[in-house]
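Weekly puzzle thread! Below is a chain. First person to post its structure in token form gets bragging rights.
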Amino acid sequence: MSHILIVEDEAIIRTALRKLLERHRYKISEAGSVKEALTKYRLNEVDLVISDLRLPGAPGTDLLKHAGDIPVLIMTSYASLRSAVDSMRMGAADYIAKPFDHDEMLATVRRVIGKAEQNRAQPINEKENTGTIAGMIGSSPVMRELYGRIHKVAPTDATVLVHGETGTGKELVARAIHEESRRANKPLISVNCAAIPDTLIESELFGYEKGAFTGAQSSREGLVAAADGGTLFLDEIGELPLEAQARLLRVLQEGEVRPIGSIESRKVDVRLVTATHRNLRQLSAERKFREDLYYRINVVQMTLAPLRERGRDVLALAEHLLEKFCTKIERPLLRLSPEAIQAVTTYTWPGNVRELENAIQRAVILTDKNSREIDHKTLDIDLDLVPIEEADGIPRPRSLHTDPREDLSLEDYFARFVIEHQDTMSETDLAKKLGVSRKCLWERRQKLGIPRKKSRRSAAAEV
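Winning reply:
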């Protein structure tokens, strides 16, 4: 049981946070100020300190001077970029804005404690041998390859380009790279280039001087400068306007940034991680993305596999999300019915992890309170399933393969079954046995490269 010290002067917030963490089996101690925390407790005897930034007498960041290797998570009610970044520059493990989301708080606590335990238990020079990464779920070959690449690249300062479909978790990769780098105690600044209007993106990234344009009543530091010493993650970099691309190129080439309206440049030391779902090489050929910038950011490329190519990871993710959302709404842990498992593992998930997360959350909310099981109808995904148990006594597809979690992957099983029975069974019977629609059977044939080889008997059955 991990021991957490909460330092918060507002009793209501402190009590709510204590109850939340105690429900998840954390041992909790409390203090109302930095002075009380240092007087009543020894910080080296706790696993995590969660402290408000603004406290009576002294700010929460003063605890950083006494915490040593114990991680400190800072809460800030005004969530300004400057206060959050400054606290991380001083050594805070992370920050979270108030009012905080319960799920976000729990996830952050788990991540920070997990990382601290890993660092204590494992020498730095052995980190590259670990098989998994905190916060990332999956043991499929493509994920193990990704973990290995992250372990190799993270300790360097190489610029990384993460490519993957929407919803695959590109920001998780950026965070993992940052947390395993020598910059881990410095800020990680994440920017979604597609979410900021073209007219504001340059001032947000590079800052501006007072009077640089109408409305610039004071100077402002940009996000590139805010990431000095740490990592800058630019998501959807393919949406960055050409003018901003030219300024970013200067940051990479010269290691300096010049705010809008300024005649002086400032030196910055920033590790750049970018991500996109678009083909930047093609955009460069079409002159929609600077070719010189493309080659600058494409030093090391990492590709995130879509969920449909991750095999049994889909079921592991679904069960993890199921536990997460059951805990969030405080209901007993649900399980997936055989039909729901079939739906989860058969569906192609075009929206990837984000779509799976939405489906599981929706199912947890809509499942009757008296039920302990989620069925495929409640999942409500766009998949034409044949019922697993037919009225005429056709065996369950589940009986053909005892459990999807066994070592044989679902695709291996599917291919083996089709090849063994396609000469003696019609497409309709094959689909029924496998518990899928004929359309799904055809799509799987195309994907796995199993052409239909009709014998006379099966041809007659089709007629």
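Puzzle host: Confirmed. Bonus trivia for everyone else. The chain is about 45% helix and 15% strand.
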